[in-house]
Amino acid sequence: MHISEGVLSAPVLGAGMALAFAGTAVGLKKLKEDKIPRTAVLSAAFFVASLIHVPIGPSSVHLILNGILGLMLGWIAFPAILIALLLQGVLFQFGGITTLGVNTVIMATPAVVCHYLFAGFVHKPKAISYAASFACGFLSVFFSSLVLGTALMFTQESFLAVAWAVVIAHLPVMFIEGLVAIFCVGFLKKVQPELLPKWSAARQQNTLAV
Predict the structure, then answer these.
(1) Which among 1, 54, 99, 182 has the fewest CB atoms less than 10 Å away?
(2) Rounded to an integer, what distance in angstroms lies between the CA atom of residue 149 and that of residue 12?
(3) Which regions form coiled coils (predicted)?
């Protein structure tokens, strides 16, 4: 999902930087002191998971975990992903500095979208919670593939075939990420549900019901 240096046009790179800056600013505004440890752990998990990658043209296939990041962090996924991508670019030359903005938008925007789509379902009964978790993991990668393809096509129309190849190549990753999201949500609901979104509201409703 990393776009390499020298592939995208200057307008696409500029737009990516602007959007990443805006998203990161919103995320930092929402980053309270009690969420810093959680954000650091999830950013590190994203960093490690996406180190193992298979190159495909100007991009690559690898685990992303942006679905679970978005589910747990919301807008804070922007700074968490930005820092991880920056370290990957500096330490391992994955992606790059000029593409940092675009790569952040590719992975963080779907994370935020999936947060708003599915965060309200994680405390529902098990079947609904697991279905929402799977959809969150699956669609976050699917949306990232679409955003990546859009960035390529806005650079050059001849990249259309590459864009479709990227989407198709990520289909197995989408299913894996969906299963990972189910496992993470199920585990956290048992051991530390306060890490999941809207836990306080759910706990209050359960307490009143009792």
Answers:
(1) 54
(2) 12
(3) none
Which residue stretches of the chain have pLDDT < 50? 200-210
Asked if 81 and 1 count as a contact pair (C-beta separation under 8 A), the reply is no
Residues 6+ away with beta carbon under 8 Å from 10? none
Element (H, E) at 59: strand 59-61
Residue with tokens 């991880």: 84
CA atoms 127, 130, 133, 139: torsion sign: negative
pLDDT of residue 101: 92
Beta bridge partners of 54: 61
Does the global pTM surpass 0.85? no
Output the six-digit token pair for 182.
């189910």
Domains of the chain: 10-209 (1.10.1760.20)
Share of the chain above pLDDT 90, in %: 36
Q: How many CB atoms lie within 10 A of CB 45?
A: 17
